[in-house]
Design a protein that fits this description.
Structural class: alpha+beta
Order of helices and strands: HHHEHEEHE
Helix content: 25-40%
Strand order of the largest sheet: 2-3-1-4
Number of helices: 5
Strand content: 15-25%
Distance between the termini: 19 Å
Largest sheet: 4 strands, antiparallel
Radius of gyration: 20 Å
Shape: elongated
Oligomer: single chain
Length: 161
């Protein structure tokens, strides 16, 4: 559970509800929380303005997409200067195939979540990725089955407001 001390219990409840269904109308959220619709609308507006809600998206059912290969690609760089690290992540995140990019500790410097239609597409991606300067080593880990994919953070609610 994650704490956000500057938010009220109602704010946390709203964020929890929106993480599971961002399409829920303000009136329905208000009913769930026993609050007025205008009050809930205003709280959501403030949460967006303060940056707690950065976007609302539709999550696609991967099973409905005809062909999909998910690969976690680890990348090690030759040079670890700030310029080299910045250059790599700026260039790597330009690839449409890169869904997530993390600068990490350990043997590898970056972990990329790459999604492509098939193995030839991944091979093409790897050739283009290898053109980024300063790249030393890459390791690929192919997803065989997805057993859990959660996008909601578990938030700890403060005492009721």
């Amino acid at each position: 559970m994650f704490k956000i001390p500057e938010l009220t219990a109602t704010d946390i409840q709203i964020l929890t509800i929106l993480q599971s269904n961002a399409e829920l109308p303000h009136k329905q959220i208000a009913r769930l929380l026993n609050k007025s619709a205008p009050a809930v609308y205003e709280r959501i507006r403030i949460l967006r303005k303060k940056g707690y809600i950065c976007s609302s998206v539709a999550l696609l059912n991967c099973q409905k997409i005809s062909s999909m290969l998910t690969v976690y690609t680890q990348v090690q760089l030759k040079d670890h200067s700030a310029d080299s690290l910045g250059c790599f992540h700026q260039q790597a995140t330009l690839f449409d195939e890169v869904m997530e990019c993390y600068h990490t500790t350990g043997h590898y410097d970056f972990n990329l979540k790459v999604v492509v239609p098939d193995m030839p597409a991944y091979k093409s991606f790897m050739h283009r990725l290898a053109l980024i300067p300063n790249l030393s080593t890459m390791a690929s880990h192919f997803v065989i089955a997805e057993h859990k994919r959660d996008t909601a953070y578990k938030l700890e609610s403060p005492p009721a407001d």
